[in-house]
Amino acid sequence: MHDKTRSDTPDTPELRRDLEPEELLAVILDYTGKIANERSLDRVLMLMADMGKQIVVSDRCTVWLLDEQRNELWSKVAHGVTELRIPLGAGLAGHSIATGEPIFIDDAYTNEPFRDALEQGALLTDKQTGYRTKALLVIPFRNNEGAVIGCYQAINKMTPSGTFSERDLRNLSLAASYSGKSIESALLVQEIEETQREIIFTMGEIGESRSKETANHVKRVAEYSYILALGLGLDQEEADLLKMASPMHDIGKVAIPDSILHKPGPLTDVEFELMKTHTEIGYNLLKNSKRRILKTAAIVAVQHHEKWNGKGYPHGLKGEEIHLYGRITAIADVFDALGSDRVYKKAWELERILELFRQERGEHFDPNVVDAFFDNLPAIRSVREHYPE
User: SMART domains under this entry (predicted)?
Assistant: First the structure.
């Protein structure tokens, strides 16, 4: 079998040298600074994989995490591949995590002590991809309580020696010590945000259920808002934030009388004025929170009925006086409301909704948001199919 780790292979990086101590320190300081400022688990894992790869000068580096609920090891980030999941205990990663011990292998194809683990992992992957695994270094990492929660797996040393050393073990062990604690922090942040998301969806569903609207309405509005946010150029973090917050747009309906929410015909002027108060009620429920998600939800709650031309409510804001979150949620909410049955109307046909949006571009709706809506219409329609009434 041709050895793709050799320097004479044209599609493989040239052999390199080990880092000098000051270079190693610079790499560690650079990555620890980046990791400390990250909230996203996926990005933390990517930074850690990159850090490990540079520290030991490997061709690839994978960060494996333990998923105890599913009895699996998983990696969202692995150089050269997409997300991986393997059974708990499988491969070298599983062996290292189970024993808490590091593993050195100079040549995967001649190693006998770990033959079974290699055939479950690296050698099997080589057969599927054509890649040639030679040297491997696997080091477990632990959380603050000392429990093993994952491991680094470095593949193919890219220096002339072609094998990992005791120095690599020390250096990657240092990275693993920091990584375990950083991942634990990122997982905690993720758990907190997932809990907040569940609470927000539940509260949003309560608000909608008061007016006989389905739970899927808030899910669809969340997905539409996310698609539009990305379509308008917002970054991933901000799009995710709006997706989590937009389900709360009608939370203020919890304070609106059933006689108004469930009225099958048009509202009187007095009733409509009372209905409009749900925007400020929602804002007042949320405005004092220090959480990013709920602060964003407060903006959405109070502004999703404002109009680009200044004729909306509750404050008659005009144009860019309306926060972009409010402008996005406005069109997401109207699209879903018009396309759904309500106590006071039947669902509109799609073409009728699209024609209204064309007419209301620059009137009710921000022209840029309307354009993003039409640009992303296939994705928006697929959301409705995925979350039907």
Answer: GAF (SM00065), HDc (SM00471)
